[in-house]
Amino acid sequence: MSRLLHVASGPYAPPVPTRELTVTSADGAPLHVEVHGPDGAPAVVLVHGWTCSTAFWAAQIRALAAGHRVIAYDQRGHGRSPASRLCSTEALADDLEAVLAATLASGERAVIAGHSMGGMTVLAAAGRERFRAHAAAVLLCSTGSSRLVAESTVLPMRAGRLRTWLTGHVLGSRAPLGPVTPLARRILKYATMGAGSAPDMVEACARIVHACPRAVRHSWSQVLHLLDLDHGVRQLQAPTEVVVGARDRLTPPVHARALVAALPRCVGLTELPGLGHMTPVEAPELVTGKIRELVTTYAPAKPVKEGA
């Protein structure tokens, strides 16, 4: 299980949940789930990406929990969810379905936001009945459906077989990340964030990413290397908003534009100048605002009947 090294104070410190529970996925894998905010409020489900945890969504949880029921969970092997031998897009979809079943009432619909591998989780589940029954709308942040390694610009080289081969080895490295040092922060900022990212943003992301065990990081890198979820994009029937940083090196804007072209019900694309891959941390107010808009439009609170 990963070491919890996230920041302890400030806007990127994880809020204390209203309640916590362990949800069991289809293969028996236990998942750590947090619920924030009041019962009965409009529901939002947050799905984090590769090497991250629920702590990644701290800014969104803090801003939304006053008027929403915010559900966040640690993907298997991340945060407080134990590692599993099964690493696949099917497992990601199983996990999301299990969380939806355990936290949402029958017929209850939520806005589901996924970042990076979290967005890929949504795409993997898009054709499943339980997902469709619970998804009122979707926000996809900094994600893609295929060709992740081939399109990555982490290595400043001309696109081609050599860059793809080298990128695969860099992202799939088994090497430990070690402590969060000034050099480690510079490397992470270059690879995943925009040049103008504030030091507290970089520190928060570095602590979260460095907490992910290297075996987990490597196992999921292999899944991402072979990712092909183009069919999931076409199956995603819920209204879907797409957000991407213009300087995203891990999932460049070419992925976002491909999603927009293929989604059955795309309701908007936002490209953020100067920002990188970690959009919920780099642009917390904007991402939170997009979630609020989707809730207001597609999953508003039900009016209370008089005398109830």
Descriptive notes:
The protein is α/β, with parallel strands linked by helices. The protein is built from 13 helices and eight strands. Helix content is 40%, strand content 16%. Strands 1-2-4-3-5-6-7-8 form an eight-stranded mixed β-sheet, sandwiched between helices. A hairpin with a 5-residue loop joins strand 1 and strand 2. Helix 1 packs across helix 13, helix 2 packs across helix 3 and helix 7 packs across helix 8.
What descriptive keywords fit this protein?
40% helix, 8 strands, 13 helices, 16% strand, 308 residues, alpha/beta
Characterize the largest beta sheet: strand count, sense, and whether it forms a barrel.
Answer: 8 strands, mixed
Low-pLDDT stretches are 304-308
Quaternary organisation of the protein chains: single chain
Helix content: 25-40%
Whole-number average pLDDT? Answer: 94
Ends apart, CA distance between termini: 45 Å
The counted number of beta strands is 8
* Portion in beta strands: 15-25%
Task: Give the overall form.
Answer: globular
Q: Provide the succession of SSEs.
A: EEEHEHEHHEHHHHHHEHEHH
Specify Rg, calculated over alpha carbons: 18 Å
Helical element count? 13
Major sheet: arrangement of strands: 1-2-4-3-5-6-7-8
Structural class: alpha/beta
